[in-house]
Amino acid sequence: MSCLILPLSLSLSSKSHQHSQLTTNQCLCPSLFQSMDQATENPSYPPLFLTPGSHLHPTPQPTTFQPGPTIQVPLLDLQRLDTDVHLFQSCQKLGLIRLTNHGVPPGLSDRLFGFAREILSRPFERKVAELADAAVKYFWGTPAVSLNSKEVNWLEGLHVSVSGLSSPASESEFGEFRNLAIEYCEHMARISRTLFNTLAIDLNLDEEQTTTYLSESNGMFRVYRYPICPNPSSYLGMEAHTDSSVLTILNEDDVGGLQVLSEHTWFNVVPVPGTLIVNLGDLFQVISDDRYNSVKHRVLASSVTERISLGYFVFPQEDSVLRSSIYNPFTLKEFRAQVQEDIMKTGSKVGLKQFRKEKPNLN
Ligand SMILES: O=C(O)CCC(=O)C(=O)O
Ligand SMILES: [Fe+2]
């Protein structure tokens, strides 16, 4: 029997999530009702994610999402990068590495995870009210604060720009969280700079490019919570995407769910405590003339356990022109504008294809 969830009106922009222009849905699927106890009347969950009986449940995707085989992510020691011949090959092949010996104190990560959990488990209405105009922004149902995705992403999160963290507006409610986030982002900046400087050697970047193609002050920090999902084969925690950054650093709890696409297969990335995952973003692919790969990834939803992860994204200087033999020159600002325009038009990110000098032959 197919599971019927009948949305009468569901417009999947982040605005529509927030104002719930959703009317009655009816779900006739018994298995969903069985999962109800877990997912359910959690007052901290966005109404969009409440149980099928809540009348606000969105339409499931037609595709089914499943765990895949496990991938061995190359493990690199941040203290030994110079001598680690595997760095370039690892990044080129998969676009993903695991970092050990990265110097982030375990206590700092633990406290940040603790705060993230505490803030996100506040009642939904409180999160919305407190974070409406705050430097720390709350979002749900979409992969990022300003992305109007056509898919429902089974997640909620906090978004803050590194420059926003130092603004006085972020102090009050989030004092302690903010202090930890500042300290954490300083570590992220150090790690991304160390990695980028090493990779820059292989890219033959000159001094100016090495400086301007990575701007630590232009970083972004997000905390994600992936709520329990009654029907995880029909929804993704985060939809498949490549990151728009130069580099992304992920720190996850032990729940798992991250998957990467390699040779047409979705592989599970199994959490390894104490390590960080680094993935290359679109802008790294550009400045490497496609020698390095911006890896496609996604996050599975879970019907059993909530998942928390921390994401740090680093970008070039806003007005720095990225040059490549394969792509037309563009700035970060132009790239972001194009991504937003594509999402508005098509419901998803088109990405680097838009900037290619020679568009791929579609025939
Ligand atoms: O939560 C995760 O592990 C992945 C997050 C992610 O892909 C992103 O923020 O772009
Ligand atoms: Fe991502």
Automatic annotation (TrEMBL):
GO terms for molecular function: metal ion binding; oxidoreductase activity. Keywords: Iron, Metal-binding, Oxidoreductase. Residues 216-316 form the Fe2OG dioxygenase domain. Its cofactor is L-ascorbate. SUPFAM superfamilies: Clavaminate synthase-like. InterPro entries: DIOX_N (IPR026992), IPNS-like_FE2OG_OXY (IPR044861), IPNS-like_sf (IPR027443), Iron_ascorbate_oxido_reductase (IPR050231), Oxoglu/Fe-dep_dioxygenase_dom (IPR005123). Coiled coil: none annotated. Belongs to the iron/ascorbate-dependent oxidoreductase family. This is Fe2OG dioxygenase domain-containing protein.
